[in-house]
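QA checklist item 7 of 12: single-chain prediction sanity check.
[x] sequence parsed
[x] length recorded as 286
[x] structure emitted
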Amino acid sequence: MSGADAAASFDPLRPRLARIAYRMLGSVADAEDVVQDAFLRWLATDRDEIREPEAFLRRVVTRLCLDQLKSARARRETYVGPWLPEPVVEAEEEVEDVTLPLLMALERLSPLERAAFLLHDVFGVNFDEVGETIGRDPAAARQLASRARTHVRAARPRYDLPKEKGLEIAAAFFAASRSGDMGALRGLLAADVSLWSDGGGKVPAGLKPIHGIEDMIKLHSSLARFFAKEMSRVVRYGRINGLPGFVTIEPGGVLQTTALAIEDGRITGIYVMRNPDKLGHLGAVH
C-alpha cells in the first residue's frame, strides 16, 4: 500500500482519534501531534496485516498519550496559576460529550484510570480491548474505569441545559459583569460559585481560584472600573467544551474564552482562558 493509500484509510479516522487524544491530554496542539505521530506509525506498519484499523490506531494513540502524560504532569507542577484544558469552541452541529469540569476532574486521575474511563465510558470500547490497550487484563481495566467513575461522578452534569437557555445566561453574565451591574450579576450566580482563570504566567490572571458569591462580586466590582475605560468586545457566543460561554477581545487586545457551568439556572463555575499559548488554534475567530 502506498502513502496515498495509508492516508485514505487514516483520514476518515483522524477526527475520532483527535477526540481521544484531546480528552486524554487536554491540549489541542499535543493531540494534533499525537495523531500525526500515529499516522507516521501507520505509514510504517504492514497495513495488510491489520484486520481492524480503527482499533489498532486507537491503541497507538492511547499509548502515545500515556507516554505524554508522564511529562505533562511534571510540567503542570510548575505551572503558574490554575491549569485549564485548552478550550474547544464547538461548531453549531457538535455536541460535546466531555465537558470542561469533567476534563478538569480527569486531571486528578492516574493516566491508566483516565484511559480506561475515556475508552470505555465515553468511546464505548469493550474492556477486552481497553485492557489490551493499556497493558492490563480486562478485570483490571474494569476496576480502573470503576475507580475513575467514582472520582469524576460529581463533575458530570446532572441534567442537560437547553443550548438556547445556556447562551441566554451567558449573554446576561457578559452584560452584567462588564457594565458593573452587580445586582443583575448577583442574580445570575449560585452562592457557591467558583472561578478559575488560566493566564499561564503570560498575561494577568488570578493565581488562585475564587470561591463564593461575595468574593466574586468584589472581583467584578473591581474589574468594572477597567471595563468603564475599555470595554470587552464579544467575538461570538457559543458552547466551549460543552458549556455555554463566549469568546472576547479584552482590554489590551487579549483574546479570552469564558465558559460557564450552570445548575438550576444559576452559574456555579466560571472558566476563563487567557493564556495565549492555549488560544492559538482560535486565531481565526478574530
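[x] summary fact logged: The two ends are 42 Å apart (CA to CA).
[ ] second reviewer sign-off
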